[in-house]
């Protein structure tokens, strides 16, 4: 799988996966595959957020509601992504 992604990246170095997949598979099929790709990774990120929030809830912050914990993590990640490498 890695070599397939690497080969496609070398063929289309300036475009993201969701952009050049429409050129490879056509307009409509590429759009559907790109949408499935985005939904899949959104699902994974939501699961990781929920799992990490539950871990913090059970281990460290038992009386805190889950929403503020997850909201803080989303804000922290957004801040880091907005300010790129300077924050790290």
From TrEMBL:
Naming one, the record's GO cellular component terms include: membrane
Question: Where is the protein found, in the record's own terms?
Answer: Membrane
Pfam families hit by this protein: Spore_permease (PF03845)
Per UniProt, the keywords (alphabetical) are: Germination, Membrane, Transmembrane, Transmembrane helix, Transport
User: What GO biological process term is on the record, naming one?
Assistant: spore germination
Annotated signal peptide: none
Positions of transmembrane segments: 28-46, 66-85
Q: How does it sit in the membrane?
A: Multi-pass membrane protein
What PANTHER family does UniProt report for this protein, alphabetically?
A: SPORE GERMINATION PROTEIN A2
Q: Which family does it belong to?
A: Belongs to the amino acid-polyamine-organocation (APC) superfamily. Spore germination protein (SGP) (TC 2.A.3.9) family.
In Swiss-Prot or TrEMBL terms, this protein is called Uncharacterized protein
Q: Which organism is it from?
A: Bacillus taeanensis
């Amino acid at each position: 799988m890695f070599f397939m992604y690497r080969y496609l990246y070398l063929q289309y170095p300036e475009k993201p996966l969701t952009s050049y997949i429409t050129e490879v598979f056509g307009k409509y099929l590429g759009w559907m595959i790109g949408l499935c790709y985005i939904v899949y990774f959104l699902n994974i990120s939501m699961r990781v957020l929920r799992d990490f929030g539950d871990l913090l809830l059970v281990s460290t912050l038992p009386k805190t509601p889950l929403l503020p914990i997850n909201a803080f993590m989303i804000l922290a990640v957004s801040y880091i992504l907005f300010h790129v490498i300077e924050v790290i």
